[in-house]
Protein 1
Amino acid sequence: MGNGTVVAVSRSGEHLFSKPNEAGIRLLAGLGVEGDAHCGVTVKHRSRVAQDPAQPNLRQVHLIHAELHDELAAAGFTVAAGQLGENVTTRGVDLLALPVGALLRLGDEAVVEVTGLRNPCAQIDGFRPGLLRQVVGRDAQGRVVRKAGIMGVVVAGGVVRSGDAVGVELPPPPHRPLDRV
């Protein structure tokens, strides 16, 4: 799994669909992105809080591969970094192929442990009608395929900026494929 690059970083202190780009964001170990609405030890995603506000936050950082933006553009959807709610937009790493427990080294200090796939909801069609069909589909066997990025928890904090390197460290086998978190 080769190395990649951080294309953009984004955050929002409010539960908005899109997050504005920033020059840099600070990841806080065990919490997430400083100043982001999803930062915290326990789950912050509103639908998850309604189910059980005490469950651990496995969705501290949301990452999307810029290659998805390219794919969406080819299908007629213009989507920029941060507009799908991601904190970190990368290029050059096949995020969706990573196993649970993979470590992403972002910049000089920050490390994010991959926990699973983002499960996009109908809100995405409110942003761009028809977009949900582009990021959720089925494979030849009828299994659901989610392409709207991955989620992770912050293992080591640090500042992440556009242009930073993304390193990948795989966990020891057997590798567990990502599922929604």
Note: Helices lie at 46-51, 66-74, 123-127, 131-135.
Protein 2
Amino acid sequence: MSDIVTFGETMLRLTPPGDERLENAGEFEVRAAGAESNAAIAADRLGATATWVSKVPDSPLGRRVVNELRGHGIETDVVWSQQGRQGTYYHERAGSPRGTNVIYDRGNTAISSAEAREFDIDQVQNARVFYTTGITPALSSTLRETTASMLKAARQGGTTTAFDFNYRRKLWTPEEARETLTRLFPGIDVLLIAARDARTVLDFEGDPRQLAHQLGSQYDFTTVVVTRGSEGALAWHDNVVHDQAAYETDTVSPIGTGDAFSGAFIARRLHGDDVPKALEYAAATAALKRTIPGDVALLTKDEVDAVVADDGTTISR
């Protein structure tokens, strides 16, 4: 039995070397990349056993994804599909003013047809936490129903449900996301959301503290974590807001930072940490991830411990 079970698609990320343009690239660096598997790996590295659940094409590319995730130490429980393809995305790195560009190629993927009945629901119900993100229901109408069913089953089994809102404008509009994701809210215990998404997608107003209070009071969440980029994060729990500053970091790759934060926060709560301490570890893990190429937080708990010990206090009000 795993402490945390995550559900979602993991793609193959293709990145040209250096700041090369995609249209001129002669080679690509290839890595597995997915929000839910990223979070599972971060949680595992912070001391929580993790399993990633998905539907994957029975193809060389599908096996490439699964083998890489297994190499990171997490368990994988996949439905091998004879239909649908392996999702990919292309990542073009660049500084200002060009900026980084991401191009998704994830139409007709194997996971888009995934139904709850295909998975081992006992595994979800025996876990301590079930985790998924707003990316998954954005991929197909089938996955909208599947995500809702998985959350419901987890709740029925007494499993805590955690959900990263994780809005992606290249996948759907704010209106589509709001209509779908708010319907999932009754099945969620712990919500993680960026302040910008609470404003842009949910039409909430106010500073991050006000956003957390509004979300916590309007919906029946146990905990609401609001991230705010370089300003850190805060969490609403038991009607108290705990404020955590961001740690200083030299950014090598920002992609996957939010996933690392989420995985670390959940892992430390499972370990028994209170919300302020879990926030410290999540912020430290996110800072370390920004120093690491790729989407995955390849770090150790000792490294996170060192960052937490060196600096960082959480203010509760």
Note: Residues 141-156 form the longest helix (16 residues).
Protein 3
Amino acid sequence: MDNRLANNIKVGLLLLATLLSGCSSNNSLPVATLHPSDTADINSYRYLIGPSDVLSIFVWRNPEVSGTFVVRPDGMITTSLVEDISVSGKTPTELARSIEEILSTYLRDPIVTVTVDTFVGPFSQQIRVIGEAAQPRAINYIQHMTLLDVMIQVGGLTEFADGNDAVLIRIEDGQQKEYQVLINELLKDGEISANVDMLPGDIIIIPEAWF
């Protein structure tokens, strides 16, 4: 009886080990994809609506379907006539034309105006600063924003930062590219030539210095 119990325990442990090894082999996650912005240069920037934006939608002569709407995390809004309208990734003008087309099913020749009251924008338009920034975070892109503007918003560098080995990651023509940025020279030495234009979706990684 004791030998049978011992054999059953061994078999159980073997099955458990097999299951665990199978789980670990299938426990890899896909690498996150950096989604490119549609802004290829600083002069082609257009603000795109994103989740958590607050929109004012005015339908001329139809106040019952006008109002203020918060964009849901799935990029949709709900109106009194239409439950789900996809808005994320559109400019306010594009969204206005899209809503006019949707409302034409219910209203005659609707005229729609869309304004953005609170700006958040999609992740693909935000600039993210990680590593040894004083306040690492995501920043809403503003047209003609530069590296200096970004560093002011994150409070500069920590005392442990190696700013001259910082890396800017950018998607260009569908390819991820890396550029060295000289943040120490810009902030500590006042070297304005180290200031560079930022684009929506840029990521700045600031490493720790080796002492």
Note: The first strand starts at residue 54 and ends at 59.
Protein 4
Amino acid sequence: MIDAQALRAVCLEQNGAGEEFPFPSSPDLSVFKVCGKIFALTDLTSETLSVSLKCDPELAPQLRAAHPEIVPGYHLNKRHWNTVALTGALPDQLVREMIEDSYDLVVAGLPRAQRLLLDRARPRRS
């Protein structure tokens, strides 16, 4: 089961990702960004851990229909965001893939120059 520490680690292992706490009214809300754009939001201190992730608008309703733990994004554009309850019911691999997909969607929307900088900064795997 993905806990708060693992969730933070998965988000921060994305190339160029950083964590911020930009909301004074919600000081515990972790916002994970790449090049200034949000790809994940979560309160890592919450008793019921969940994460909001960007999602392809065609895939979002399919995920919601297949998994009761996935609902339309809380206080976000419901067409493009899902909120995922991390209760242990979803396979860890699915959660990781949703985080990576959210990151990839945000990166795809970046200007070409920023995408190229991220590609150059990506560590090479051997």
Note: The mean pLDDT is 93.
